[in-house]
Amino acid sequence: MTGENLLGMPRAAKRPPNTNSAGRLITVVIVLTLGCLYAAPNLFLPDPALQIRATSDEYQVNQESMQKAVEALERGGIPVQRLRVRRYLRHDPGRFGRPAAARP
């Protein structure tokens, strides 16, 4: 049975064991890379955030309101890592150098 074909199929070319074609190796590398990228967010702990924003011009977010928020979070057992106050301009009539009437 050493020289016969099995079920009429010719024998495959002889090559060393545990060798694969370049296409298979590239496929394995691509799949492993995509798997690592997909799993990477699980390596980091969640970092929740809280955003406090004024709902109208009548209310302002200032240091006093920030201090109230920090105290409420600390009472709830939530540690505060960083505070940042940003100023957002809601109504800027001269934005980009055009008068307000000329904007669509």
Q: What features would you describe in this structure?
A:
The protein is mainly alpha-helical. It has two helices and no strands. The longest helix has 18 residues. The radius of gyration is 32 Å and the shape is rod-shaped. It starts with 21 loop residues before the first helix and ends in a 29-residue tail after the last helix.
Q: Would you spell out the secondary-structure blueprint of this structure?
A:
Elements: H1 22-39, H2 63-75
In short:
With 104 residues, the chain is mainly α. It is 30% helix and 0% strand.
What average pLDDT do the residues reach?
77
What radius of gyration results from the CA coordinates?
A: 32 Å
Amino-to-carboxy terminus distance: 85 Å
Main sheet makeup: none
Task: Tell me the fraction of residues in β-strands, as a range.
Answer: under 5%
Spans of at least 5 consecutive residues with low confidence: none
Q: How many DSSP E strands?
A: 0
| SS element count, helices | 2
Anisotropy-based shape: rod-shaped
